């Protein structure tokens, strides 16, 4: 008996700064293109051009949309696939799914970009074999995807860990940059927050500078909150800030034992080193995750 060929899938990873459209032979990337995330019309029309070319060459079996949030991810909600109130100018109330559905009749799945990346790291990357993980991306914003037993966590909406408030270091005065909450964790350590709080651009600041100390403390407080609230087996930290400033992860790892104060005795330094890590898939986590969303909707519909 011959084995069936993998389905021809496409993915859209809609990020705050750039959008990546991907063609896959199943979840194996065949072709990928990066586009700037500008206005909804410009961005999705540019994505549509690539998807249409792929569709014309051979029909797409499904499309996965992995978007920045907040976005409605409940399939039976009337506004499923719609971006809600967001700091990204011009994107609030954008019906992303509706705009893609206008051109394609195949099944289309929607989830957050971080949930998609978490699925990819769980299936193929740094969280293989783990029943629970959190994927954090630190870039234009800060988002986190949670996967339990291979399924992304949804609820009233989806996890919005970037907007929780964490304990500040004694004497900390930076007010934060989040237009909604000021000093939530996104407002403290996202890319725009670092540009506002550090003495020079983050890319020009010596990793050994004490100006990074409070930033490392803030990230460690977030990690402590996640460990105590969710008890994940792996925390994967991606995004432009994390990959360009890996010393921040090391600072946070070293700070964690003092914050936890011995409460989780299994988390010795060696265990923390393994548990909290960079993505094994690197920048491919999001694109692969968008293809996984497409594959999963075919499985769910038994297509």
From TrEMBL:
Gene3D superfamilies: 3.30.420.40. It is an enzyme of class 2 (transferase). InterPro entries: ATPase_NBD (IPR043129), Carb_Metab_Reg_Kinase/Isom (IPR051804), ROK (IPR000600), ROK_cs (IPR049874). Its cofactor is Mg(2+). CDD domains: ASKHA_NBD_ROK_BsFRK-like (cd24067). Signal peptide: none annotated. The keyword Transferase applies. It catalyses: D-fructose + ATP = D-fructose 6-phosphate + ADP + H(+). Keywords: Kinase, Magnesium, Metal-binding, Transferase, Zinc. PANTHER family: FRUCTOKINASE, TRANSCRIPTIONAL REPRESSOR MPRA. This is fructokinase. It comes from Novosphingobium pentaromativorans US6-1.
């Amino acid at each position: 008996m011959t084995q069936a060929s993998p389905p021809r899938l496409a993915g859209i990873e809609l990020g705050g700064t750039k959008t990546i459209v991907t063609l896959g032979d199943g979840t194996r990337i065949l072709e990928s293109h990066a586009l700037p995330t500008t206005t909804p019309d410009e961005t999705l029309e540019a994505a549509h051009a690539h998807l249409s070319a792929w569709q014309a060459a051979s029909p797409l079996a499904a499309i996965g949309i992995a978007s920045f949030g907040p976005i409605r991810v409940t399939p039976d909600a009337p506004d499923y696939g719609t971006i809600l109130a967001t700091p990204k100018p011009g994107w609030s109330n954008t019906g992303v799914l509706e705009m893609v559905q206008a051109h394609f009749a195949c099944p289309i799945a929607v989830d957050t970009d971080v949930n998609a990346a978490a699925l990819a790291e769980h299936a193929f990357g740094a969280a293989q074999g783990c029943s629970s993980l959190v994927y954090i991306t630190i870039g234009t914003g800060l988002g986190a995807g949670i996967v339990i037993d291979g399924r992304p966590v949804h609820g009233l909406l989806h996890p919005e860990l970037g907007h929780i408030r964490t304990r500040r270091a004694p004497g900390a005065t930076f007010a934060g940059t989040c237009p909604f909450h000021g000093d939530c964790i996104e407002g403290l350590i996202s890319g725009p927050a670092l540009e506002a709080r550090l003495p020079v651009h983050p890319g020009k600041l010596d990793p050994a500078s004490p100006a990074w100390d409070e930033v490392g403390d803030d990230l460690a407080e977030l990690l402590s909150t996640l460990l105590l609230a969710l008890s994940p087996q792996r925390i994967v930290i991606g995004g432009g800030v994390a990959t360009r400033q890996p010393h921040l992860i090391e600072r946070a790892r070293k700070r964690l034992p003092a914050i936890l104060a011995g409460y989780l005795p299994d988390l010795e330094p060696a265990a923390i080193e393994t548990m909290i890590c960079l993505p094994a898939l690197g920048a491919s986590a999001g694109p692969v995750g968008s293809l996984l969303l497409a594959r999963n909707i075919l499985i769910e519909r038994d297509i």
